[in-house]
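Hi there,

I know you've been waiting on this one. I reran it after we fixed the sequence typo, so this is the corrected version. Both the input and the resulting structure follow.
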Amino acid sequence: QPRLPLRQRLAVASAVAGVATAGWLYLRHQKEQQQRARRLRQLRQLSLGQGDFELCDTSGTPRRKADFLGQWVLLYFGFTHCPDVCPEELEKLSRAVELLERDPALPPLQPLFVTVDPERDDAAALARYLRDFHPRLLGLTGTAEQVREAAAKFRVYVSTGPRDADGDYVVDHSVLTFLVDPDGIFRDCYGRSRTAEELARSVRAHMDTY
């Protein structure tokens, strides 16, 4: 049986490789979609972020969770006297928002910082503190009860440590950044090990599949 000319053999081999590559990419895409869907189901079972909260921003304006419907939200709970963890996490959050802002086709994203230390973090303290981070990072505070209720809705652990001789203290709390979709539904959370680039990629993936 005569063999095909070399050029034709190469064309056939290239076509076969192209089909195989397309099939592999399709299967990988399907697997990633299934993994995201499974993770989303697992996260929804946690029932995090359900219900509303009522706090105030740095201008004293009352803010509720419902005010942010229609936009994506990245939410972090922390406190301004935190020596290292909170600044690092807010820098990472700010960097992730900047990365996402490079694509004007993406939907609106609002970064939020909710204090877990309302005794020291009033509106003025928050405003001073947040000047060092993303310009759209919105700080929220309130009464001790309001802050406690907001943290509880996301199951954020908060424990105020003992006061020292100067009356200073540290607040131990969960170190997580939460992603909430435009419907006000919790979509994902990110711990300290995630980089800003990983966080931005994850948020983009959720936006793409929303």
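Quick highlight: The CA atoms of residues 47 and 186 lie 8 Å apart.

Best,
R. S.
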